[in-house]
Design goal:
It comes from Nymphaea colorata. By secondary structure, the protein is α+β, with helices and mostly antiparallel strands. The protein has four helices and two strands, in the order ββαααα. The radius of gyration is 21 Å and the shape is extended.
Length: 83
Amino acid sequence: DLPTGKMIGGGHERERLYFLSIPVDVVASSVPSKPSPFQWHLRLGHLSVPKLRCMFPDIPASESFLCDACQLGKHIRSNFPSS
């Protein structure tokens, strides 16, 4: 871990790839148990809620979220007036 200087795991190199040997308790404590629908939205390339529901039917029908990247992507470019 760069900020703390602690070693969080070890590993080895084989055929120019690094394989980490991280203890299970470290991995389990560093990852949340269930990602939120918003996390899936981000991870899967900003899918819409209906498409997320097709993949994950357990997402509540009332689920919605505001994503800055999606809102900005819907904007159109304005032309500047020529003076």
